[in-house]
Amino acid sequence: MALFGSSSSSAAPATSDPEQAQIKAEVLKQLQTQAAIANAKALIGKVNEHCFNACIPQPGSSMSSGESACLSQCMEKYISFWNVSSKAYLSRLSKEKASAQGLDMVSANALATGGMSESDL
Known about the structure:
- By secondary structure, the chain is mainly α.
- The chain is built from 2 helices and no strands.
């Protein structure tokens, strides 16, 4: 339980700070991997749903060359749009994170110099 803290003051920490940081980094990496897999599955599902419905009006035992070309173009466009929107989202997220960290730094500096009180936060 040392990873998540302990309410008991008599419990000795089972791991040191560097070990905890490493465990947290590994957990974060696993969560990021799982999120990437979930996003890939969502992309594939949406491509299948939208492109199949748009390009193959009457499914049969084989695809015509027109249906195949339609699917290829649709998938390329959908993935391209997905990439553009993902980049825009990540860019905005990083800007907001940087802005929030900048505000945190300003607040910390103001507290250190006596410019703000904790109640101002």
